[in-house]
Amino acid sequence: MDPVTILLSAVVIIYLAYVFNNQKQHKYKNFPPGPTPLPIIGNIHMIDMAKPQKTFVEMAKTYGPVFSVQFGMSKTVILWGYDAIKDALINHAEELSDRPHVPIIAKTMKNNGIVFAKGESWKVMRRFALSTLRDFGMGKNGIENKIIEEAECLTKIFKSYGGKAFNNLTIINAAVANIIVSILLSHRFEYDDPTLLELMRSVNENVKLLGSPMVRLYNSFPAVMDRLPGVHRIMFENTRKILDFVRVTFTKQKEELDVNDQRNLIDVFLAKQLEGKPESTLYYHNDNLASLVANLFGAGMETTSTTLRWGLLLMMKYPEIQKKVQNEIERVIGSAQPQTEHRKQMPYTDAVIHEIQRFGDITPNNLPHATTQDITFRGYLIPKGTTVMPILTSALHDGAYFEKPQEFYPEHFLTSEGHFKKNEAFIPFSLGKRSCAGENLAKMELFVFFTSLLQNFTFQAPPGAQLDLTPGLGATNAPKPHEICAIPRC
Known about the structure:
Layout: H1 3-24, H2 52-63, E1 66-71, E2 74-79, H3 82-91, H4 103-109, H5 119-138, H6 144-159, H7 169-185, H8 194-210, H9 213-220, H10 222-225, H11 231-255, H12 265-273, H13 278-282, H14 286-317, H15 319-332, H16 347-360, E3 369-370, E4 375-377, E5 380-382, E6 387-390, H17 392-396, H18 439-456, E7 457-460, E8 485-488
Parallel strand pairs: 2-6
Antiparallel strand pairs: 1-2, 3-6, 4-5, 7-8
Helix pairs in contact: 6-7, 6-18, 7-14, 8-11, 11-14, 14-15, 14-16, 14-18
């Protein structure tokens, strides 16, 4: 195609986009304010595509806690600050319970699973996941003993380094992954198992790439980006590997299924397929099973392991806080194995874990919501199908609720007498109908793993190392690559 034709085509596309947007403006009458978008690209030129929240914090100063931006041709409402987020996700829970179309996810997962699913399929899968996680995680089959056993395995691995420096990423990922794997598959992997290493690599790489500028561009211009090489193709291949593993696994389990002895989540799902009810065919199909297990594996590993890694990094950075936690462990637990029942007697440790979650700010931009119908919110009209982003970092760093929002300060969760206190703006698991289904399991894991490690080790930076608390790039805020020294305490 010659340059003149390309130029004329570009002019026509821009003009048509301008006309199309003008025709749609009546739909967005009384829409939340925001910067003026350019044709086709919207506000992309103004937004830090690697860390959008950095741009949003400045926009909120101009437009207030409810404003809008445009990614490509799609308008998005941004909710900034705890009050606006709570108002939206609690008082308008049903109207904001949908997910928008996310091209990078839709291409691989379709409308399956739980994280990005929509409509009745999502409702059925969420009920199933919550019920099964409760049964195998916090109910009759209790998961705490498995967490305790895994904490002991993790401690042995840490001790094997003899106080020398090592990178804890793979080790902590594997320990946390084994907990969700035990619920999904009734299985445990050794930390150097090639299958586990490949699954974790695929998940970690996808999470990192999901927050990359190129993938954000893909979500805005999928038709164009699909014709180009790029990291989106790596994400597609990683997702294919994960789904293939899950399909092979549940195919094997189906051959030996005993509906009277359901050992794990996959067994329970397969038993649902055999019930012969209408929803058995509509929702309990193999594609939903593959996506659901992949969702739970990724979410169950990534956020909890990242939080633990932040915890150890922060203990190295603030040795005086580490010592206070260890003193409380000695006073309350001694040499016994930490259990969740100890938490209520350990207000300082509880406060430190909460502050690790707040300061680590693992999912700063949250996952996007979408309106199920036209709604009026704080005087603005938000049409059905509009993407709404409740920015969690703005709640976790809300100066109206946290005295020192930019600092690591466990006293955010302590009274002047040293008792633990809740803070309503602490919402790392989000709020409403799309809040994290594994919240209770994650809390149990964080307490047992963290206290077990600090009971056995004092964590120090390698000689001469500079501790950097700036998060790396990715959809989650993970620590940058670093090494730790785990000095045995006995």
